[in-house]
Amino acid sequence: MSVKFKPSRILFVASIVFYVFIVLGILLTVVLNSLSKGWFSGVLPPYLTTEWYAYAANDHDIPSLLGVTFTVVIADVLISLLIAFPAAYVLARHEFKGKALLLSAFLLPMIVPPMTYGLPLAMLAYKVHIAARVIGVVIVNLVPIVPFMVLVLLPFIEQVGTNLESAAKMLGANRWTIFRRVLVPLTVPGILTASILSLVKAISMFDLTYLVAGGNSQTIVVALYADAYAAGARPPQAVDALAVLYFLIAMTCLIIALKFVSPTQMVFKLK
Amino acid sequence: MKDFKKISVRNMTKRFGEKIAVNDFSLEFGKGEFVTFLGPSGCGKSTALNCITGLIPITGGEIWIDDECIDDSKNKVSPEKREFGMVFQNYALFPHLSVRENVAFGLKLRHIRHAEIAQRVEAALKLVHLDGYGSKFPSQMSGGEQQRVAIARCIVLEPRLLLLDEPLSNLDAKLRVELRYELKALHERLKVTTIYVTHDQTEALALSDRIVVLRLGRIQQVGTPSEVFSDPSNLFVADFMGFKNMWTAKVESLSAKGERLEATLDAQGLKLVASLAWPEGDSRRAVIEEAHRTGQPMRTAVRPEDISLAPRGSHNSFECAASIVEYQGQASQVSATVTATAGPGLEALRVDLRSGTLISEGEVFSASIPPEKLLLFPATESAAEASRWTP
Amino acid sequence: MRGAAGRGIVPLLIPALIFLVLLFLYPFAYGLFLSFTSAKGQFTFGNYLRFFSDARDFRTILVTLQISVPVTLFNVALAVPFAYYMRRGIKGERIITFFLIVPITLGTVLISEGMLTFMGPAGWFNQLLMALHIVKDPFQFTHNYLGVVISLALQGFPYAFLMLLGYVSGINPDLEKASQMLGANKWQTFWKILFPLMVPGIAIAFSLNFVMAFSVFPSAVLLGQPSGPTRVIAIAAYQWAFEKFNFNAASAISMVMAAIELIVISVVLVWRNRMYKGATMVGKG
Questions:
Q1: Which residue range is the domain that position B337 belongs to?
Q2: Distance between CA atoms of A265 and A193, rounded to whole angstroms?
Q3: Which CATH architecture has domain C54-280?
Q4: CATH class, A61-266 region
Q5: Do the beta carbons of residue B329 and residue B343 sit within 8 Å?
Q6: B254 and B223 share one domain
Q7: How far is B202 from chain C (nearest CA, A)?
Q8: Which of A32, B78, C23, C193 is the residue whose CA sits 20 to 30 A from C6?
Q9: DSSP string, C11-49
């Protein structure tokens, strides 16, 4: 088949190339800058060095940052799953008054800006002394993740027909057995998708974490922001070294995630 | 509407990569004709239809309307300029427009005066018995009503050619029959040239002036409904048209009986006589004579409806034992095994027939086949292969 | 459907309800309460009056709208033709969507940090522009309004695009064919059929993109001039809460934020309903 050079095609390809150039440029700059010495002009840095990584490691308690980040992300995914799965199950299986209202209530935390409920939530967290602690970070980050999970899980559960459950019931299985032996195994793809999508989302969550994190409960993103904010306090290359660490973690998760889900699933689902 | 005498499709071919969806398709049809493309799913009938509309670009061949070439696989008149109308299986009504706006859509594009549009839309809706539905939205209507809107939306433009792609297959059985009847009446009235695509032989037989049977992208047979029904051109068409009993048979003797040719056959031990309506000079005579001379087996085919219960010993009869009986009201569908008394080694021979009298399972009875209902085909392909294409 | 699994399963909703009330509704109500309370705990409109009469704070609304409205319009306006172009899938779709999802996954902080160098005076972007003789001297892309807008476009565009792509590819392709068969060319089919059908998707994409842009925070600090031209409303709220420790004033600002977003989203929904009457009709599809 011959390639046709229609103006729309040229425009499209040019825009994509331009966009990819910017994204790649930003990422490569961060990586290269973190390895550079004396790069004030020119296309490439004159010298390469790993000293900024040593600097960053010295500057931050990296194991703590990693520990907090992974604890928060994994805990949030697991807790959200425990809350969201039963809720999604009821919403998929049972018609009741106020169901539409409940569904929109679940949507709200996803469309209201984090600052709006995040500020009072942070104040409450300080009041009950969970702020600046890992548990506080875990709890506030649940707010956008749980609804997101409910929405992702809902179609998966609806897909599993009720007749399988009825069949199991006819065979004498009780409700818990049905849940454990029929429903959960059949919704594994949904659980997997929801978990992965939430994981990717949780890693880059900044606003809420920033409002409650402190001292030893910082995640990498928050530490990165704090470093970038206090720009004069340390060389920018050292900030980029930390950025590369974060970048590697986020990209690893993204690449693993894309083995299971498609990019369109990562944004808010339109019905 | 531009007038025309005939549309000719010449050697139309469509490839999708390695796969050939439509293969060397040639057909001519005259103005006012109702032509049906019939075949199982995947036979290329829908692709052929879409190629004629121009929605799918063709890889080879030409399409002509009288002496105007609308597509020669390199240059084509784009679909919106062909003045064809198309009705889709899933109706494809515009959900954001009311029924009236849907029907008026094409007229508005043609910059017709408001008053005329309104009048033509009402007339078209009336024609499909939907007067008064104008301000409804598609989502408020039943499937049958939606399909009527889709038909009205096409005929209001008085298209040169109306194409319907399995328009009834999303409807339930009762509505399907109703709308089929209306389609027929509409065609009688408007005489718009129509191509109709379906996998349902009943629809094809009921509606068409001519039927085009397709398989694997190739035309198998073109003929009037009665030709296709009673004289299928090959085993595949026979199988598709309901010749369920297909046996391998050897030709034992041949004799000409006027315009017909009478053949005695040995179908795995079962002796049968076939009276073939092949006039002198029919090429099929040469094939059977060749088979007779070489002892090459052929395939014989007969419809269950054409086998009847008969007194023992009557012409062209044999004994069999009913194994499965399905009561279907008017008659029963009987599946039986030809019994050993009819000849040796016949246990494997299965026969399907319809019986007006009740037969119980296991009962032994005698059945006969009218010789003129028994067809004979070259055994170029196995029945199993042919039946794979039954939907 | 009713009672497919019995009424007995309703208690399974309890954890989610507790979550919703405790972590979302209660904080929200608490914020609302704080915003109408003085530091001494008395009812007052003072927090709001203070915000609207403080020129520096009040200006943040304008500043934020000046950033968020153009960037959202840009993102959605660009996402519509792109989604339309890719609606049936194209070659290299996977790699393109991968590059689109990257900025979303990485988050604002990393993108902002990267932009500081990449688009800085000595960065590759300026080097390229100068090599192509588009500019003579390095162009100022960071530490100003433009920097914030670019960062929001880099993340908002893919978001809007991927959302609309999912939406457009869900539109029955036969509708386009039907329109064409009725005599409409590509342009007419787009404006009369596809665009109206995309309106609900566009409305949601616009709303979510706007929420994201309106609550911009880290990139306004890192890439903008947080003390002046890009002092957005979220910065004001944050400063009152964590620099001046006046939670009442901060709550009032966050409520103003919510109110403005509500107004914008309502406007979008009204537009949607006027454009797309078919969708509001209930019934089977």
A1: 239-387
A2: 9
A3: Orthogonal Bundle (1.10)
A4: mainly alpha
A5: no
A6: no
A7: 26
A8: C23
A9: GGGHHHHHHHIIIIIHHHHHHHHHHTB-TTS-B-SHHHH
**Edge-to-edge strand list for the sheet holding B364-368:** B308-309, B364-368, B317-327, B332-338, B350-355
Name residue B195's amino acid.
Answer: I
What residues in B contact C194, CB-CB < 8 Å?
A: none
> Do C281 and B139 count as a contact with CB atoms less than 8 A apart?
yes
DSSP calls for B182-211: HHHHHHHHH---EEEEES-HHHHHHH-SEE
**B201 and chain C: CB distance < 8 Å anywhere?**
no
DSSP-derived letter for residue C191 is I
3-state secondary structure of B13: strand
Per-residue pLDDT tens over the stretch B265-302:
988 888 899 999 888 888 888 888 888 999 888 999 99
Residue B1 lies inside a defined structural domain of this protein? no
Assess A261–C contact: CB distance below 8 Å, yes or no.
Answer: no
Whole-Å CA distances, B347 to B270, B299, B355, B374: 11, 18, 21, 21
Task: Give the pair of three-digit tokens for residue C174.
Answer: 């036969």
Phi, psi (deg, nearest 5) at residue A172: 95, 10
> CA B264, CA C203: separation in Å to the nearest integer?
76
Q: Are A208 and C23 in contact (CB under 8 A)?
A: no
Q: Is B307 left (phi over 0), alpha (psi -120 to 50) or beta?
A: beta
CATH number reported for the structural domain that contains residue B203 in this entry: 3.40.50.300
Q: How many other CB atoms are found less than 10 A from the CB of residue B169?
A: 14
- Residue B275's H or E segment, with its range, is strand B270-276
Whole-Å CA distances, B209 to B34, B166, B375: 5, 17, 24
Q: How many CB atoms lie within 10 A of CB A181?
A: 12
Kindly identify which residue of chain A lies nearest to residue C198, measuring between CA atoms: A270
ipTM of predicted assembly, 2 dp: 0.85
Partners of C60 in beta bridges: none
- pLDDT tens profile A161-208: 777 778 877 787 777 788 788 888 888 888 998 898 899 889 888 888
Per-domain residue ranges of chain C: 9-44, 54-280
Residue B183, in any domain of the structure: yes
